[in-house]
Amino acid sequence: MKKLKRSQRLVDMTQFLLEKPHDLLPLSTFAERYGAAKSSISEDLAIIKEVFEGEGMGELQTHAGAAGGVKFIPRMPKEMALSFIRGLCSQLEHSDRILPGGYLYMSDLLGQPSLMEQAGKIIATAFYGVPIDTVMTVETKGIPLAYATAAQLGLPVVLVRRDHKVTEGSAVSINYVSGSHKSIHTMSLSRRALKEKSRVLIVDDFMKAGGTVGGMVDLLGEFNAEVAGVGVLVESDAVESEERLLHDYVSLVRLGEVDSKERRISAYPGNFFSV
After folding, report:
1. Buried b vs exposed e over 98-129: b needs ≥16 C-beta within 10 Å?
2. Does any domain span residue 1?
3. Predicted TM-score of the model (pTM)
4. How does pLDDT run across 106-151, given as a tens digit for each residue?
5. CATH number at residue 49
């Protein structure tokens, strides 16, 4: 890499750190990259750390010792997260989102990379400090959110299939009950997709009674894997508490009333802001 001025080096270092969240990067990596002394690199990192933490972008951790270095941990302060979620609630409350049968149209929001990036960062913040090996979701509209969350955690994504694909090789399949319709569905996961005893963060775009997430929890049991946590973008209040199949989860938005007749929707911040 060509020799850079300090201002240029700071920009490149910042981008380098943002692209490698949760990776422990030795100072020698930067010293070799820029042809600079470690003392100069340390001064640069101190500046970046101040900006990251001052602007609420995340935390820059320093690890001492021969095997040490720096690690960038993306985080979002709750006041910033609340502002974002309130904006998301406003978008969800548009009456034209109501579909026949009282369903809610969300595909346009799930298709916005910048919006999913912020939502993924909030979910990643919710599980700060929790040991996680991989992020899991079912192959549906929640895939963008799962990838956004995994990117913030520096982790791979595992996709659970509704229908087994021959290209996946041998798979484990289970039946599960949809909590909202009490109907039986099937989901499967390739045996090669997940190592046994992995710690898994389950991510989903929408949860009503929790049947789909519950199915993924059961599927993980077949791999002797552990549920590290569950994060959902939107949860519905249209379920009695005794009917909800899942109680330990983090939600960003709680969907209240969806009145098809009056064309009215109510949405408000989820339980992320009360834990």
Report:
1. beeeeeeebeebbeeeebbbbbbbbbbbbbee
2. no
3. 0.89
4. 999 999 999 999 999 999 999 999 999 999 999 888 899 999 999 9
5. 1.10.10.10
